[in-house]
Amino acid sequence: MLKKTPLGQVLGLGSAKAGTEHWWHQRVTAIAGIPLVIFLVIYLLVHRGASRAEITESMHNPIVAILMGLTIANLAWHMRLGLQVVIEDYVHTYQTKYALLLLNTFFAVVMAVAALYAILKMSIGL
């Protein structure tokens, strides 16, 4: 049987102090991603073959722009969390692991910011 420290019992953390929280974040982003990806797929099917002007016009709808932004943010965060687990599990040298974790976060943030900028530019015409 695994013994927990009093602080660990109160916070509900395992031995790594963040494993449970990370696990929950992955599950929450996965569940939140289901309706968001369904929205994205439907949006792409409806606008298949549409011109850039038609896509830009559809992004003027605030609901579409917000859902698209939430989809991008959720997918980027979920991707970052999943790749973090792979790096932590399979990269064994400290320096390489640290560098890859930084690169993983940097990549996810840059991709999310670039996509959110594009959505914002199309939705309000920046």
Structure, described:
This protein is mostly helical and about 130 residues long. The chain has one domain (about 35-125): 3 helical TM bundles of succinate and fumarate reductases (Up-down Bundle). Helices cover about 80% and strands about 0% of the residues. It contains five helices and no strands. Helix 3 packs across helix 5. The radius of gyration is 19 Å and the shape is elongated. The mean pLDDT is about 90.
Average of pLDDT? 90
Helix content: over 70%
The major pleated sheet works out as:
none
Q: Which regions have little confidence, pLDDT < 50, spanning 5+ residues? A: none
CATH fold field value: 3 helical TM bundles of succinate and fumarate reductases
Helical region count? 5
Which CATH class? Mainly Alpha
What is this entry, summarized?
The chain has helices spanning 6-11, 19-46, 52-59, 62-90, 94-124. The protein has 126 residues and is mostly helical.
Topology:
Blueprint lengths: L5 H6 L7 H28 L5 H8 L2 H29 L3 H31 L2
Helix pairs in contact: 2-4, 3-5, 4-5
Main attributes of the structure:
single chain, 126 residues, mainly alpha, 3 helical TM bundles of succinate and fumarate reductases, elongated
